[in-house]
Design brief:
The chain is an all-alpha fold and 241 residues long. It has 14 helices and no strands. The longest helix has 23 residues, at 12-34. It is elongated, with a radius of gyration of 21 Å.
């Protein structure tokens, strides 16, 4: 797989499967961590462990226009831990939070639109919400947007825009974005070499960000370069901020 990503094209089905894994796994992890907080906070505020009362706090605040409450109510309804699961209602609340400018609400609403979970599939609008959330610093939104821009999902294929979105994701802590930037510079959409010194730079940054297996990619590219070219890649990595 590594050789094919660097030096040739991989089968379209494999690329699709990998993209889906990249989208879904972070979303599941994010939901698992976020759902604990609103449940605990609402129960504490209710003062008695009465979950019905806790839910009323959510609904009252959400209906009054509180974007944070709208987002957290969406989490509770999607999870189904405090009340009956209602995905459509959850997505509706995410949408209201998104339109009110809530960054995570924008990300979750974009995620639902991208996969048609609880709402009609709308890739173009998903990209718009990912872009909005990314501008507010939601790294996973920038990463998902980059994957869509690179693949031409929901709009034109734009490798330059994808690179910018991957960089935004990398700056906000998504280590996988460094790897994707490396792949992006190693080969373009047609399979032709682009700037493999730049690719080496991104793989070096990927390893330094904690992706140990990026060392294999580094070794593959180092073998192609002389010492001057390797030093150039190291210098570019050191200069990136």
């Amino acid at each position: 797989m590594i050789f094919r990503r660097l030096f040739g094209r991989i089968p379209p089905r494999s690329r699709t499967d990998l993209r889906l894994l990249r989208y879904l796994l972070p979303a599941f992890l994010a939901l698992a961590t976020l759902i604990v907080s609103p449940a605990w906070a609402a129960e504490k505020r209710s003062g008695s462990g009465n979950y019905d009362k806790a839910l009323r706090w959510y609904y009252d605040a959400a209906k009054s226009g509180d974007a944070e409450a709208q987002f957290r109510l969406g989490l509770v309804l999607e999870d189904g831990s405090l009340t009956k699961q209602d995905l459509k209602a959850a997505i509706s609340w995410y949408g209201r939070a998104a339109k009110a400018g809530h960054a995570l609400g924008q990300y979750k609403f974009g995620l639902a639109l991208q996969f048609g979970n609880g709402i009609a599939l709308d890739l173009r609008t998903a990209r718009e919400w990912y872009e909005a959330a990314g501008k507010q610093g939601i790294a996973r939104a920038s990463f998902n947007l980059a994957l869509m821009q690179r693949a031409g999902e929901g709009g034109e294929k734009d490798l330059s825009a994808a690179a910018s979105s991957f960089e935004a994701a990398a700056r906000n802590g998504i280590s996988e974005a460094f790897v994707e930037l490396g792949y992006l510079h190693a080969r373009d959409a047609t399979g032709d070499a682009v700037d493999q010194i730049e690719a080496l730079k991104w793989f070096i940054l990927a390893e330094r960000s904690g992706i140990a297996w990026a060392d294999r990619l580094i070794q593959i590219l180092r073998a192609r370069f002389n010492l001057t070219q390797q030093s150039e890649a190291e210098a570019r990595a050191a200069a990136w901020k």
